[in-house]
Amino acid sequence: MDTRELREKYRHFARWYDLAEALPEALGLRRLRRQALAQVRGNILEVAAGTGKNFRNYPPNLAVIAVDLSADMLHLARRRAAQLHRNYHFVLMDAAELAFPDRVFDTVVSTLSTCTFPDPVHALREMSRVCRQDGRILLVEHGRSNREWLARRQDRGAEAHVRRFGCQWNREPLGLVHQAGLVIIRAEHRFAGIFHTIEACPA
Length: 203
Fold this sequence. Notes:
Number of strands: 7
Helix content: 25-40%
Structural class: alpha/beta
Radius of gyration: 16 Å
Strand order of the largest sheet: 3-2-1-4-5-7-6
Shape: globular
CATH superfamily: Vaccinia Virus protein VP39
CATH architecture: 3-Layer(aba) Sandwich
C-alpha cells in the first residue's frame, strides 16, 4: 500500500481507530507504552503520532513535535493534547521524509507504525538521522509472533488485513530495526511474541 492509499485509508478509519485498539490497550498495550516511554527526555519527536495515545506518558514540561501522514489522525491528536493541557506542535509529515535537520531530537518515539510504513526501513533510518547520537529511539510495535502456530495464522490473514486496515501485521520489527542499521540497546517480546518494545540509538 503506497502513501496516497494509506492517507485515504486513515481518512475513513481515524474516527474508529481508538475503538479498534480498545481491546489490546486493555490487555496490556497501555502498560507497554507507559513502561517504554518512561525514559523520554529532552526534545521529543513522535513519528506517526496517530490519535495521540502516547501523550499522557510524557512529562508535561517537555517539548513535543508530533507528526503524522494523516490530517484526520492529527486532528484527533490535537484534541487529545488540548484535553491534557499540553502545548505540542503538530505537523503533517511523511515518516519517509522527515523535514528536520540531522541530530536535533533527544528522543524519537514511534508506536504501532512499522506495520503501516510503505518502506519501514527507510522510515527508521530517517528517525535515526534526526536523533542525537546520544539520544534514544523508542518503539512499541506489533508484528509476527514468535509462536509458529500463531505466526502462520498471521501470515494467512496478512493480505486481507492490509487491505482492510493498511496494517501488515506479520512484519518483524526487530529485523527491520537491524536492517535500518540502528544500534539496539534493549528489545523484548510480549503477549505471545506479538508486541515488541525496542530501545535503540543511531548507528
